[in-house]
Amino acid sequence: MHFSIKTDAKTNRAYMSAAVKSRELINNPFVNKGTAFTPQERDELDLHGLLPPAVSTIEQQLARNYNNFRAKPNNLEKYVFLNSLQDRNETLFFRFVLEHLEEMLPLVYTPTVGEACQRFSHIYRRARGLYIDYNQGSRIEKILRDFCDTPPSIIVVTDGERILGLGDQGVGGMGIPIGKLCLYTLCAGISPYDTLPVMLDVGTDNAERLADPLYLGLRHKRIRGEAYQDFIDLFVAAVKKVYSEALLQWEDFLKGNALRQLARFRDQLCTFNDDIQGTAAVVVAGLYASTRITNQSLREQRMLLAGAGAAAQGIADLFAAALQKEGLTLKEARGQIWTFDSKGLVTRDRRDLEDFKATYARDPGEVSNYDCKNQMRLTLPEVIRNARPTILLGTSGTRGAFSEEVIRVMAKVNARPIIFPLSNPTSLSECTAEDAIRWSEGRAIVATGSPFLPVEFNGRRYRIGQGNNAYIFPGVGLGATAGGVRRITDGMFMDAAKALAAKVTENDLRECAVYPELTRIRECSHAVACAVIKRAAAEGHADASMLTNLEARVERSMWFPDYLPVRYEM
Fold it and tell me: Considering the entire predicted model, what is its pTM?
């Protein structure tokens, strides 16, 4: 690495120490300031002739780039523009996105990142992160060591098999770790110098990708079974050896693999799965906030999950844990959760039930008009009429799964139904926010997985809170890095959910929004980080000394995108 951040002993001010000059310096996005290099820096760093003579402020650079950004014809072109900006100037990129966060977040991540993953091999411009393919199993440790001199604090890894609701995108899945790490920086102030996106390429079963002559990944079917697990084991062993203090986040693995890797490695290193644990925490936070609108306790809630994948399992388990904290037994808590998948209501008479589905399967005797021979006849509205859930969550990835009948039945059995269509990208949402509001005659408490504009209905404005994992996982990462946390536990996600729910204001609730506005997301991440460190210290996964001046400690560790003076130092 050719740069580092140091502090001047005389002035006590931070500066960037660069070991390179001239063209090599301005081609490095982490240290490049473009036209913002001062005359003194241009003298010392041999930049004369490489830049136009006028010196720009960062505000002028932001204005210039925003004009160019607005000229792009569609979201994918805007995504490519932002990627290009990041490739040449990291500080300016993050400042640019942070200045326009609500406008930019759907572009750097969902929903636009889904299309970017599908088009990855066609819009590829410049390498970012590490691509480790199956044939490099014996070289993983060397690949990690060669990447950078300073170990990353956070690694996000995917194998590209379950990208959002779009399925197997092969090497194109790299857009997800890159996007997630952008959110770590934007939402929680994790320095971009300390992050590493990783793509584990084991092939793809996507016929369209394999037939594409421009596809950049391995051109064979996915490696599976024991060979696949051996490869994952080699990767984790290398991470533990080379980057032993890094937080490893698993992202967008197929359900079985996601659950397996979390269970296999959670006690070996600092690791978590955002699709399982992060999703669960942000949903439970939204439910805590929702009960402030319904004037009910959490223990009074009954949940119906439409979709029974990894995200649903994480949500169900954390919700059950939350109900236990409200005084219910584990059996009672699980009894308030129903699951519905592609075969209908999950019941105990099904053969070969997965462990998760078996845990929450219902007794067929609970259901009126139940057809044991053909469960598909028991529709989602019929399940709602039987179970009378107060909460309906969509994790199905099925567009339109929450029909008008579904919403109206939820509104019939509840004065204020809680309806969260969580699937993303937007094209796969179970229903739109407007449909949920309109079909419930304005009574539904709605949060979505993808961003939706506010809804006007009967003279009232409903701000749609987005159940975005960005409210949780960046704060968890911030807590882990700022607090020296050695393990990530479910209890930390429970406390993270409570910390986020506490940030929902009365004004938010008046607008029927159960999440804070995105403009406050750094404040939310700070609260989540403090909660994680407190729980880690209580559980023995962080030193108690980290609790001293905790809020100030976390605040100091949050990076803000602004230019530092650059000095040439060998």
Answer: 0.95
